[in-house]
Backbone:
């Protein structure tokens, strides 16, 4: 391994060469088709036993931020259940292979997060396959831009809220009876929760909801010894973006207006999830950890 996540580097130059060409893929998009390839930490993430013996369920664990988190969790010693859409099997199979190489027990549980029955089955199957559950990462998400509010169909509005908000509610509710004291829940919100783009009104609204859900639930569960936190990514190179997450013509300059001057890679998100999942963050609850290239947040 030439570089790992602890190597001393200039963060502004870490991925300075990446300029994605205009490209488009149908939703949900595949990491396998992403050009250039995203860095999920396959070559660089080095575990040091921070999640030894832990049991994690990660939605959207096939690609992007969820996949980078899954790789990090497995290398830190956790067993991992992955949720994803059936059409993402190619990405999920590759990630599952990397997790098994790290020694993890892996459960692949495909299905649609918009379906409450799937969300409940997902939790039951994850608990069965891993022999319990003590980390839940609600990360699956839908982002489709529309220039005008009048272009957002009722169906899109509903799908975005079902995927980003309802699934988090259904899964967390089903998981709670299984989570022992010490467990951690991490939700994926976004810079969009505080700085909503005009073309992402529905999506940004779900992310603000996720922040409030996280803080309220954190208050409720802290006395029970369960910590709830969120990670708020900035512009990250994942299949979400070229599958109608952004207009194609904006992809080449994606992330250039951040103080670090570039987009982020999924591998740079994983340590935030590891920190919030592990017992080292024992006094951190109801927090939103921003990983966004330096953009100011409230
Ligand atoms: P991604 O496309 O790799 O991951 C999103 C995942 O959501 C998909 O892999 C898919 O498995 C899952 N998903 C979507 N609809 C689903 C459905 N109906 N049923 C089941 N699974 C479904 O992209 P990502 O950027 O890694 O996204 C992960 C999270 O990060 C999302 O919540 C996203 O909103 C958030 N986020 C991303 C960025 C960014 O710039 N990429 C910025 C802020 C927040
Ligand atoms: Mg995917």
Residues:
């Amino acid at each position: 391994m030439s570089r790992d996540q602890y190597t001393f580097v200039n963060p502004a130059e870490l991925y300075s060469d990446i300029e994605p060409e205009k490209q488009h893929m149908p939703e949900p998009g595949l990491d396998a088709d992403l050009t250039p390839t995203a860095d999920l930490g396959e070559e660089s993430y080095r575990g040091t036993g921070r999640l030894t013996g832990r049991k994690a369920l990660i939605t959207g664990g096939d690609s992007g931020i969820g996949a980078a988190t899954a790789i990090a969790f497995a290398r830190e010693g956790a067993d991992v259940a992955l949720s994803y859409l059936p059409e993402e099997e190619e990405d999920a199979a590759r990630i599952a292979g990397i997790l098994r190489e790290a020694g993890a027990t892996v459960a692949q549980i495909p299905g649609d997060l918009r379906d409450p029955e799937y969300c409940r089955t997902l939790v039951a199957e994850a608990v069965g396959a891993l022999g319990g559950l003590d980390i839940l990462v609600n990360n699956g998400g839908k982002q489709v831009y529309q220039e005008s509010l009048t272009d957002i169909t009722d169906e899109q509005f509903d799908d975005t809220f079902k995927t980003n908000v309802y699934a988090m509610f259904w899964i967390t509710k089903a998981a709670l009876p299984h989570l022992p004291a010490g467990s951690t829940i991490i939700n994926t919100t976004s810079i969009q929760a505080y700085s909503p783009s005009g073309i992402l009104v529905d999506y940004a609204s779900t992310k603000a909801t996720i922040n409030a859900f996280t803080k309220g639930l954190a208050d409720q569960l802290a006395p029970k010894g369960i910590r709830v936190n969120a990670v708020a990514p900035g512009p990250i190179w994942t299949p979400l973006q070229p599958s109608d997450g952004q207009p194609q013509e904006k992809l080449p300059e994606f992330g250039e207006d951040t103080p670090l001057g570039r987009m982020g890679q999924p591998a740079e998100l994983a340590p935030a999830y590891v920190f919030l999942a592990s017992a080292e963050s024992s006094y951190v609850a109801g927090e939103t950890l921003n990983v966004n290239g330096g953009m100011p947040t409230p």
About this structure: Residues 28-29, 60, 62-66, 84-85, 88, 112-114, 139-143, 163, 188, 190, 233, 235-236, 238-241 surround nicotinamide-adenine-dinucleotide (ligand 1) (CB under 6 Å). The domain at 46-291 is CATH 3.40.50.720 (Rossmann fold). Residues 154-175 form the longest helix (22 residues).
